[in-house]
Amino acid sequence: MEQVAPLSQVVVAKPSFLRANAETIAFVVMALGLAVAPFFTYPLFLMQAMCFALFACAFNLLIGYVGLLSFGHALYFGWASYLSAYAAKAWGLTPELAILTGTATAAILGLVAGSLAIRRQGIYFAMITLALAQMMFFFALQAKFTGGEDGIQAVPRGYLFGLIDLRNEAAMYIVVLFVFLGGFLLIYRIIHSPFGEVLKAIRENEPRAISLGYKTDRYKLIAFVLSATIAGAAGATKAIVLQLASLTDVNWPMSGEVVLMSLVGGLGTIFGPVVGSFVILLMQYKLSVVGEWVLVIQGIIFVSCVLLFRRGIVGEISAWISSRLKA
Amino acid sequence: MFEIFGIPSGALFGQLLIGLINGSFYALLSLGLAVIFGMLNIINFSHGAQYMMGAFAAYLMLKYSGLGYWPALIIAPLVVGATGVLIERLFLQWLYKLDHLYGLLLTFGLALIIEGVARNQLGSAGLPYVVPDALRGGQNLGFMFLPNYRAWVIFASLTICIATWFVIERTRLGAYLRAATENPTLVRAFGINVPVMITLTYGFGVALAAFAGVMAAPIYNVSPQMGSELIIVVFAVVVIGGMGSILGAIVTGFGLGIVEGLTKVFFPEASNTVIFVIMAIVLLVRPAGLFGRRA
Q1: Contact residues, chain B, for A138 at CB < 8 Å
Q2: What confidence score (pLDDT) does residue B234 get?
Q3: Measured between alpha carbons, how far apart are the two ends of chain B, in Å?
Q4: pLDDT class for B5, splitting at 50, 70, 90?
Q5: Residue A126 CB neighbours (<10 A)
Q6: Is residue A11 part of a domain?
Q7: Model-level pTM?
């Protein structure tokens, strides 16, 4: 008869070098890959993809590690992008300050929306976040400074710290790479901290976490604000890179897109959202010729992911690898 | 013509009427959402798309087979409801054992597919649909002009809402439904075919959305995106009312429609957002919703 090892032993038993360091290795590969990638493909595409990847990672922090589905993350991405663009263009702030302005905006919005949304659970949470995002979409549509249908165009990239000209593609690329890897490591750190362990406990069984004395609402709110802030950093950086902030970034299809990216890559996996956003963006570029069918294809991907590949690309791969290692 | 709070009464009652019309659609759609959620534990994100399908079915029937409004009012909900049955059998039935969120994601995907196909086939511009002959014109009530068609929409949706409430709360079939919502396993043990009931419930909810779509066609233009924005407002309505009570969904739907109409008179800039603001206030004051029970 096969002996089932207790859970603690499974983790400790002979940690092969590859398994124990799989995440570190994958991170190094990802960082090196992104560092050399601009020599092989369009830097602008890569910068955009990194912004979306960070956005998706921030979204995944909530759904994957706290079990909260926010269907309104475009709110933080889009408003941060507006404020960042406005700060750079109208106030003439340097890019790093513009990005900080956008990020801080997202943090405040996250605090307000989060404290409302965590009052309800599950499916209601998703609907509340969506509704609040739609409300802020209408504000963006009506407000003067957002430029309505035109958005804020021709945002100057400016001089980083007043010194380095970001119109230089290489300099801009390094800034974006820095923001992306920084945000990614921050999320990694959050997930693997004691705080992150409590978040996972809430995801698994909230009443039990409460009974153990954790003020789960407070944890959920902090996680929400962190997620909104990082999503904001992604949006704010995107506004500087593409020199544009528009209604697209703040509208509900954007919220759906970030869900799709995380779902395709793998909810609750660290690298999933990164893979997912590169895949989805690449698909959008390749399929731009088919016009409106992109919507249909996205829908089909949604449906097939939910029915067939709930673990996503990275989730399926890591499941396959661990089944191999066991054999 | 007299004035109320400095607003000409004609404008006030006119907006009130528009509010009641919008409220009719909020009520019909949130009712469908509540019925589906009660049975399937799924938030049907494609509800807006299915409402749009109803309007398009009416439009296509008129264009290609000359079938007018009245046949469309019967046939379109049946056809769209049948696609709902198909969707439940093909997709949704595999999700009942999973987290509710997967149902939301799947129906969101379906909504994208439906809207995308509609845009490809019919373009994103709005298409007009004429008011049926029998309901042209209107009544002069002295204080305002009431178009016949709008009166019909309010009457019809109220009737459907009350009929649905009656069936669910006051009949044997409704008792089975409510029992199956509470404890499906036990109800199955009594020899009632719960899976079929679930399938038909989804079909019925979808048919309700399509019915609303047909009624909306002569008022708003028929366009692929007519459902997606409406459904988000309806979500807010559902959060405010809570999905525990059928009557709650109806009252909240009409009530919020009226509030929205009044906002258009007194503070037009906020008319798009007022429902969301009310949602935020309700969440602060009564987190479980106006008619909801604390889970």
Answers
A1: 272-273, 276
A2: 92
A3: 50
A4: low
A5: 26
A6: no
A7: 0.89
Q: State the DSSP H helix or E strand holding residue B145, giving kind and residue range, or none if neither.
A: strand B145-147
The answer to whether the Cβ–Cβ distance between A142 and B233 falls below 8 Å is: no
pLDDT at residue A11, rounded to an integer: 41
Indicate if the pLDDT at residue B180 is higher than 90: no
Q: Look up the domain containing A257 and give its range.
A: 17-326
Q: Which residues of B touch A117 (CB under 8 A)?
A: 283
Assembly ipTM: 0.89
Side-chain-side CA neighbours of A289 within 13 Å: the count stands at 1
A267 in B contact zone (CB under 8 Å): no
CB of B267 within 8 Å of a chain A CB? The answer is no
CATH number of the domain bearing residue A135 = 1.10.3470
Please provide residue B12's backbone torsions phi and psi, each rounded to the nearest 5 degrees. -60, -50
- B106–A contact, CB cutoff 8 A: yes
Pairing of strands A159-160, A164-165: antiparallel
Which CATH number is B143's domain given? Answer: 1.10.3470
| Cβ within 8 Å, pair B273-A135 | yes
Mean pLDDT per 10-residue interval, chain A, length 327 residues: 39 51 85 86 91 96 92 94 92 90 96 92 88 91 85 84 81 92 94 93 92 93 96 94 91 92 91 93 83 86 90 88 79
Instruction: Give the list of residues 6+ apart from residue A150 with CB closer than 8 angstroms, or none.
Output: A246
A165 DSSP β-pair partners: A159
Structural domain tally of chain B?
Answer: 1
User: pLDDT tens across B201-255, in order?
Assistant: 999 999 999 999 999 999 988 999 899 889 999 999 988 887 778 888 899 999 9
In a domain, B196, yes or no: yes
Six token digits for residue B20 = 């009641």
Residue B132 lies in a domain: no
- Helix A74-89, helix A95-117: angle, nearest 10: 150
CB B78 within 8 A of CB B207: yes
| Residue A303 to residue B235, Cβ atoms within 8 A | no
Round to whole Å and give the CA distance between B274 and B279: 9
- By residue range, what is the domain housing residue B106? 15-119+137-285
B293 pLDDT tier (thresholds 50, 70, 90): low
In chain A, residues with a C-beta closer than 8 Å to the C-beta of B91 are 303, 307
pLDDT digits (tens, 9 = 90+) for A161-180: 877 777 888 889 999 999 99
Name the H helices within chain B: 9-40, 47-65, 69-90, 100-122, 148-170, 172-182, 184-189, 194-216, 226-241, 246-266, 274-285
Name residues 154-213 of chain B within 8 A of A (Cβ): none
